[in-house]
């Protein structure tokens, strides 16, 4: 597999061995491009099979801990440059994990082999900025021949790290999707792409808020540190119990709402910009990659 | 100026003030997008004027310490997506600092007002992958109407930090351009763009090598930590005294060659890929931005 260090190659002893095992130099030069190592844990492959067979069609929070989860955006080639630039300019909300070659649905930067048309639990389809189909389980018949697929990191990726540090993840405890809200924070525009930042919200005990910051900031590909802590109204959120996507979760006495940037920003932007055609994941129903994040 | 926090606005007290002073949320969300603050130091504006008037036409190492220096690549729109993806996939060598809107030559993400067609000391022009003109001081007549301008960070940016830490910067001491070499390390391809990594080399005393790593790694937009330390032959470099770009510098007894990825990788790639048309800076003759890096 191009760009991966295979555990089967044995120890990496020098640059030549490294290069021989890589085929190219991505892992050596750029930690963002590919898994840091291979892994015998096949949970993510099994999980993608469950999605492909439509056995699993719901949110992915709590699934396959330790592997990077991703938002999906598929656009026609004519929109690809502007969107890539948009992500570059708004990397906190839209951290690019991989971009497939034109027409391809196999993200070789983050999996050995997978099919983005079937391997997510659920998909949305947008036409002229409007959601026209939701919760599809297979988009093979809709995938454009010139489609460019973008994978953007998701904060579900670090939930197990919070849990391991004894910080409750309410949406996982309650077996619900995370709460997501459109904010009043404007993204930096790029070409035709414009819109507002979407955030996730996790209720966190006062004594744990700093820990959530220091833990999540280690995962910039999964949105990193929170962008806002406390008052929802500063973000233009009127009522936490009415999320724009996902499910409401309880905020208990003594807990503070902690807001991370969310990749669903890309869907808000697809709508606000009136993009002619897009396929995305259904919010909360992410692509689980092979990329190990810790 | 869009996207900048103006020092004249007084203290930033809350999110609303921050948003009011920003116009958009880039600085709040994404440290990569714009200067961290304004600054009364006008040295970089004066320096760009010297370039515009063709008073300064040489390398920029040692100029305007504290401001991010950038490589320039201008391509036709048809090549822009593939190149942006190439930079995304090879961010160690090609860290994106700003991308202008189609046809624009004013990089609003990193300067209040500047003209990329005149404000660099010297330019190269490539046609069908070949260098056809070098050391031009003004490219206004050559700039394509559909040109997309990319700015990529440069390691000159942290030279003054090394000097402040009593680590010699030989190329500055010797008043020479830095030494640059094409290596045998292959970049990860993107569309038509392919080629090898170019590196800079700084000779460093054995006792200072770790310091160079820990200091430069703080500047990922300026290539961050070295990609290789020691044996040039591992990188396919036969003779350090014969750099592919820039000037040779002396490596003294007890010094180790320290190699950082270099933005001239983009020019190597323009040549290797046979790109139809490109304007770039002349290696070592960078664009000095307003972006403060420490």
Structure description:
- The structure is a homodimer of 294-residue chains.
- In chain A, a hairpin with a 2-residue loop joins strand 3 (123-127) and strand 4 (130-136).
- Chain A is globular.
- In chain A, strands 1, 2, 3, 4, 5, 10 and 11 form a 7-stranded antiparallel β-sheet that branches. The first copy, chain A, has a 4-stranded antiparallel β-sheet with strand order 6-7-9-8, with helices on one face.
- Chain A is of the alpha+beta class and 294 residues long.
- Chain A is 21% helix and 24% strand.
- Chain A folds into 3 domains: 1-38, no CATH class; 42-153 and 271-292, PSTPO5379-like (3-Layer(aba) Sandwich); 156-266, PSTPO5379-like domain (PSTPO5379-like fold, 2-Layer Sandwich), CATH 3.30.2040.10.
- Chains A and B meet through helix 1, helix 2, helix 4 and strand 6 of A and helix 1, helix 2, helix 4 and strand 6 of B.
Give a quick precis of the structure.
The structure is a homodimer of 294-residue chains. Chain A has three domains: 1-38, no CATH class; 42-153 and 271-292, PSTPO5379-like; 156-266, PSTPO5379-like fold (2-Layer Sandwich), CATH 3.30.2040.
């Amino acid at each position: 597999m191009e760009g991966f260090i295979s555990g089967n190659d044995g120890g990496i002893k020098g640059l030549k061995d490294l290069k021989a095992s890589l085929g190219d130099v991505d892992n050596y030069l750029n930690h963002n491009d590919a898994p840091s190592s291979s892994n015998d844990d096949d949970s993510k492959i099994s999980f993608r099979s469950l999605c492909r067979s439509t056995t699993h069609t719901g949110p992915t929070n709590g699934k396959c801990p330790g592997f990077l989860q991703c938002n999906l955006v598929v656009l026609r080639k004519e929109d690809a440059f502007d969107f890539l630039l948009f992500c570059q300019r708004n990397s906190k909300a839209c951290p690019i994990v991989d971009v497939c070659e034109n027409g391809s649905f196999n993200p070789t930067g983050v999996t050995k082999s997978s099919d983005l048309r079937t391997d997510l639990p659920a998909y949305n389809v947008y036409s002229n900025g409007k959601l026209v189909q939701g919760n599809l389980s297979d988009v093979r018949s809709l995938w454009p021949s010139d489609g460019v697929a973008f994978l953007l990191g998701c904060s579900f990726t670090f939930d197990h790290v919070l849990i391991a540090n004894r910080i409750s993840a309410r949406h996982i405890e309650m077996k619900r999707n995370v709460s997501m809200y459109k904010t009043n924070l404007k993204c930096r525009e790029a070409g035709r792409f414009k819109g507002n930042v979407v955030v996730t919200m996790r209720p966190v005990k006062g004594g744990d808020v700093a820990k959530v910051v220091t833990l999540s900031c280690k995962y910039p590909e999964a949105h990193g540190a929170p962008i806002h802590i406390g008052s929802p109204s500063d973000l233009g959120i009127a009522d936490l119990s009415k999320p724009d996507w996902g499910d409401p979760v309880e905020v208990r006495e003594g807990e503070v709402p902690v807001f991370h940037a969310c990749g669903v920003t890309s869907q808000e932007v697809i709508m606000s910009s009136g993009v002619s055609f897009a396929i995305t994941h259904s919010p909360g129903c992410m692509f689980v990659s092979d990329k190990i994040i810790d």
